[in-house]
Design goal:
The chain is of the alpha/beta class. It has 3 domains: 130 residues, no CATH class; 184 residues, no CATH class; 57 residues, no CATH class. The protein contains 19 helices and 11 strands. Strands 2-6-4-5-3 form a 5-stranded mixed sheet. Helix 6 crosses helix 7, helix 10 packs across helix 11 and helix 12 packs across helix 15. The radius of gyration is 28 Å and the shape is elongated.
Amino acid sequence: MTTPELQMAAETVPDIPEVLIEQDEDESSLEIPPDRRRVRTEKSDLPVDTIFNWVSRGKINPQPEFQRYYVWNHVKASRLIESLLLDIPIPVVYVAEEANKTYSVVDGQQRITSIHAYIAGKFPDGKDFSLSGLQVLTELNGKLFKELTTDLQEAISSAIVRLIIIDHDSDKDVKFEVFERLNLGAVKLNDQELRNSMYRGKYNELLRELSWNSHLLKILGATHPHNRMADRQLILRFFAMWRNTHLKYKAPMKLFLNREMEEHRNPSDKELADMRKLFEKSIEMAYSVFGASAFRRFNKGQEGNPNGKWEARKLNVALWDTLLYTFGFFDKSQIIPIADAVLEEFLDVVTGDEVFTEYISSTTDKPDRIHYRAETWRKRLQDSVSDKEPRNFSLALKQELYDDDPTCQICSQKIRELDDAEVDHVTHYWRGGKTIPENARLAHRYCNRARGGRD
């Protein structure tokens, strides 16, 4: 089966439950200048016949890539047609004008699709659309459009639908907020789905392609991309941080990501190739170091229960930003051969640096927190890559000590898993203790921290 076919199959399934993606974006105001705080709209009352023709020839796109898929059942769609025949006004439809003078449906997709489907004779899934479940015009149940009388066909075709057209020249940031407020119903579109309504182009296509990356899918514990685009927003965050660097990040994250897509929506072929290569090498390094635990927090344990553990399901977005972004500055040949040392550095910082731990736990998108995390991890990663004497013991030695005796040398309890074991210097590193087997002892991470075993 080809990738596009797999994509179509994925679009019919519910949200993947394997991984929860923690979100804690800073909800700062957008700080839009007063002279830009406007959205230009116009009203247009169109007969159904015109709407049908516009949809048929692509002038109206009822299912832009950002929209959720057609979900109405036959009865609900049939009753909409019954409303048209009874001259009952249907809710206003909102569309966004594109640069090429076409329109994408923002609110009203199910209605427009149902109307077009009935006149065309088939639902989007290819099944015949005959009326069913009508409560007033019951004699029309089972009728296709072509089987209606000429008068009834004309009644449907001449029925008026009001469109509110959001002009293409409207301010992008205010327009984004309007789109959000139009989607406050049972299934609210998320930020990434909304971005796809406004900034479609080659960049969007690249995000879709990269969501099929095999290393990413393994990290997410999934067999296909997320059908609400959570994975695409993660990839977008990576590119935005990489292009701007953590030094130039400006809150809120929502606007930061909007700008990234707006300003680079149609990269050149070379830019696309470079972006693809950058993401693929970075995510491969992350998987090589962390495996399925990539971008998860490791909790070191607590008093009375010193055994720590990895977060099983929650992918931490702050760690995604920090780790993946920093890997982008290195080559695979620098990281993969020292994957064990990099893992040990991560376990050390995430359990030993209280500021780092706090900054991946709450209000994670504030500039000072992004800066601290990036600088802290970049320095540790650079030190691991350099040729200087290592500060941490090797994973091989830890495995050897664990296999020989998995007992914490501080609390004398059994260490349940290898990643919760830490090899400590008997004579502290800062006192000149060498990182050699003769100066090593095994302990829980929690016990070692509580004892002050790390400098």
